[in-house]
Design a protein that fits this description.
Blueprint lengths: L13 E5 L2 E6 L2 H13 L6 E3 L9 H29 L5 H18 L2 H27 L1
Antiparallel strand pairs: 1-2, 1-3
Length: 141
């Protein structure tokens, strides 16, 4: 049973809102989700589906898509931050590199991007190797 955010059974028709405009109405929830995705892909923000009672309707797929979209925004913001840190020379510090790599690792894990997870893990492993070398050299001399 499809329910709205109040826990009540969601009754069609479904209205798809985007950018404070409700120009789309659909009896089938799957079709309403397809329209919602098209609106988002077209650049609309604040896109949601309400039932005949005007109550928002979400399902696991929508929740997952919204979480992924939020993590992608975080990932993009990190790119900008890391560029600034790199240009300023701040990423030369080992503790900053380690924090940046760990943060990147957690973001790409959340995105489920296995290639980038491996790359982030390799970066951390390389840094750990460098860190070990520094410690050995410092204690040997």
């Amino acid at each position: 049973m499809l329910t709205n955010v109040l826990g009540n059974e969601a009754a069609g028709p479904f209205y798809i809102w985007g950018n404070d405009d409700c120009a789309n109405k659909e009896d089938d929830f799957k079709e309403a989700k397809r329209i919602r995705c098209e609106l988002i892909a077209g650049g609309a923000e604040s896109v949601y589906i309400v039932d005949a009672d005007g109550v928002e309707v979400v399902d696991g797929e929508i929740v997952s898509e919204e979480a992924t979209a939020a993590v992608i925004k975080i990932d993009n913001a990190l790119d900008g931050l890391f560029s600034i840190l790199d240009a300023s020379g701040a990423l030369e510090a080992e503790n900053t590199q380690r924090a940046a790599y760990r943060l990147r690792l957690e973001v790409v894990r959340a995105l489920g991007d296995s290639g980038r997870v491996q790359a982030a893990q390799a970066s951390l492993a390389e840094l750990d190797g460098q860190s070990g070398d520094v410690v050995v050299l410092a204690t040997a001399g």
